[in-house]
Amino acid sequence: MGFHNTEEAQLIGVSSYNVSLKTEAPTTTYKPPLTNGIVTPIKRSSTSVSIKKNFTNGLSNNFRHSLRGSEVINTPPTTPPSSNLINKKNTVKIECQVRARIPTSTGEFFLHLYRSDRDNKEHLAIVYGDDIRSNSLDSSKPGESEMDRIIRGAYKGRLKPGQRSSETSDADPKVSSVQLPSPLVRIHSECFTGETIHSARCDCGEQLDEAMRLIKLEGRGVIIYLRQEGRGIGLADKLRAYNLQDIGYDTVKANHVLKHPADLRNYDIATQIFEDLNLSTIRLLTNNPDKIEQVENAGIKVIERIPMVPIAWQRSPDPDRIGNEMDQYLKVKVEQMRHLLNLPEALLR
Ligand SMILES: Nc1nc2c(ncn2[C@@H]2O[C@H](COP(=O)(O)OP(=O)(O)OP(=O)(O)O)[C@@H](O)[C@H]2O)c(=O)[nH]1
User: Fold this and answer.
1) Which one of 10, 164, 302, 325 has the minimum C-beta count within 10 Å?
2) What letters, b where the CB count within 10 A reaches 16 and e where it falls short, cover 127-162?
3) What is the complex's ipTM, to 2 decimals?
4) How much of the chain, in percent, has pLDDT values that exceed 90?
5) Measured between alpha carbons, how far is 194 from 167 in angstroms, rounded to an integer?
6) Ligand 1 centre and the CA of 231: distance in Å?
7) How far is ligand 1, taken at its centre, from the CA of residue 73, in Å?
8) Whole-angstrom Cα distance, residue 219 to residue 213?
9) What pLDDT shows up at residue 233?
10) pTM to 2 decimals?
11) Which residue from 184, 189, 201 has its CB within 8 A of the most atoms of ligand 1, so it is best to mutate?
12) Pair 340, 287: CB distance under 8 Å
């Protein structure tokens, strides 16, 4: 088996590492680094409002999961992205390289593929609504033909067989790249297990589907899909973490045993994509206060948080289900990662 290094191999080897199911925490001198995810420095402008003060948990309204359960954050909408809000010095550079129409069982979305100068990954924006346009995609490239623009998706409206111009006849002339109302947005991190093979260890697959459904319902919005598998630790270590979870560690401690912080993610690429899409104020579908803080620190205003309540918790939770792996995973997020969800009664016991 390919361990990253001998230290890690030793760490996982039960013989060389004091793993005991009786003790809650692993008996190790290792101290996890400060996480991006849990300790984010907060620099707030005078219009920002404290998350603690304003965010309540998502289930206060009888387990209902709808846009009505959202929390409006009292920051006035601002004008389009003001570049001076964003520290350009260390800013990751992103570019939308290609876009295409994707009909799905939920509705028709436009998938935008982004590259950054920070990694080799293909980050995505799943866009619903004609008026959300990418500046980097739409800008003309030296020497390109109309066919080049069509092939990379820099057209308006919808392509038709035989089309040769990037200005289609059904493009909405009212579409403007400025002063868009705040759209419904989700920033989602890759989860192969939850989204592709529908793992019931986490709620990731369900959240992605639900975000698409809510955005379609509203008629407009974006899901930023970041390639930060396993909260940034990658799929291999996430699978190692699952083995550790099977022998008694929770999702946070399993990361620590593998010498990772609980959450390694940051949202710089997402905030740059928002800027590229001319979105300076958003309504964010999340339970994770760290996402809100990081996005706001980058100059994007989160004017509303819409909770993502697990579907099984929207009804009165079935007591037989408690103890279920997904519920336990969510409980740890609430208790240790500040997630903004009210635990159902049965999970409090
Ligand atoms: N390390 C680790 N990562 C996990 C585990 N379960 C799920 N994940 C990853 O957690 C991430 C979930 O990300 P998001 O869907 O953005 O969710 P979130 O941070 O909980 O925030 P919201 O869903 O917005 O409230 C994905 O990258 C998953 O692959 C686990 O047990 N360990």
Assistant:
1) 164
2) bbbbebbbebbbeeeeeeeeeebbebbbbbeeeeee
3) 0.97
4) 56
5) 39
6) 5
7) 24
8) 10
9) 97
10) 0.78
11) 189
12) yes
